[in-house]
């Protein structure tokens, strides 16, 4: 059975490589925004959110959507703060209630004596002040405190009328807003170029084997596919006018459209090339001055060598001569790796070719060897339970304890089995050509999967195997009367 490949990044798992890469891009954008802005401050969160809403394609992954939700939550706080401030500034007598009664947003009148049931004898007539005015309540309208507050409000209105347009103009790049966004975008643009140039140099020097100067020149030439090369420039030292000029050049060059990055097609091709080479984000070398390519190939050689000699030993356990064991082992190695390098003295050109082939087979990724799955069923090989029953040519079935001793993915799997009186070894190979069939009954035909070898004491059994419903069927000298059955009840 084929193994469904998954891509995991942080807390999320993705079904396709494209989804994984979009999530990685979103995380990088989020990191850059959080480095530039404090999103816990509602006004800054709202500013970022406004830009994102104008360009909904900015984020495409669960990480991006989660970040937008966080911004929306912070922006709601900004809106609430604005509403509270407006309510607090409403003048007395404007219909919003007196200062003592604005908590609910409307005026609250005291109940009348008729409503409360109090006696009218307790009410007092309004007193006349010395100036002849009538006091309708105990709240004093004109106090020194209210006079000072009024002066402050008037002064604020005057200042705002004079300087508000300059303080809050979103068209003024030097006053935050668009200026900050442009600076952030150009900083990201330059940083991405610098990182890409380093990875391109690593590719040409470590993988392609070019001399240092040639690798450097080629990397610089590739960066020339952008509208501008900012990989060696310090954006932090640029003035606002320089930022505006660079931003304009990037727009005219097509690298920025509608305040969003547009990656040149040639750069996309280069990044795909780096990804396939396993250095999309990895530029490290091996130990003692080894290049990344050499380190990966040396590790692969050791891995293949251990696998090869293990297979040779296991075939010898099945009573094969040394030469036959080596031949079987080499067949298995070819099925697994395609490119066998552990016994070769590779030239630089051979190393590059082997490296590329092993990458295409998914056996080297990010300059690291990829170990095979430990699940035999992933390669359509049987995974036997700790107990089995073996019946040869319709003889009475015998029960054995069974354990896997070696597994060569897409090639073979070996088991050791034993009872109180005897022990032996089993091997199932996945070398069938899918052209040989077994008729189980009039309605069911199955494919022969490959070679089968078994040794019990001095008895040697060799034939082919196939799946027989819940058992393993054995084809021995044309007869299909032999079975290996799984035993699920371990007390059997």
Brief write-up:
This protein is α+β, with helices and mostly antiparallel strands.
List the strand order in the largest sheet: 7-8-9-10-12-13-14-15
Mean pLDDT: 77
What portion of residues belong to β-strands? 15-25%
Q: Structural class of the helices, strands and pairings? A: alpha+beta
Q: Taking Cα atoms only, what radius of gyration do you get, to the nearest Å?
A: 39 Å
Helix content: 40-55%
N/C terminus separation: 29 Å
How would a crystallographer describe the biggest sheet?
8 strands, antiparallel, barrel
Count of helix runs: 12
User: What letter string, H or E per element, gives the SSE order?
Assistant: EEHHHHHHHHEEHHHHEEEEEEEEEEE
Give the CA-based shape: elongated
Number of strands: 15
Flag low-confidence runs: 92-139, 164-176, 282-289
Describe this structure in words.
Strand 5 (364-365) and strand 6 form a beta hairpin. The chain is elongated and about 110 Å long. The model is unreliable at 92-139, 164-176 and 282-289 (pLDDT under 50). An 8-stranded antiparallel β-barrel has the order 7-8-9-10-12-13-14-15. It has helices at residues 17-36, 42-54, 62-88, 113-116, 144-167, 178-207, 212-223, 240-253, 265-276, 292-317, 322-337, 348-360; strands spanning 7-9, 12-14, 256-257, 260-261, 364-365, 368-369, 387-391, 398-408, 412-418, 423-429, 437-441, 444-456, 459-468, 471-476, 479-486. Helices cover 43% and strands 17% of the residues. Helix 6 runs antiparallel to helix 7 and helix 6 (178-207) packs across helix 8. It is an alpha+beta fold.
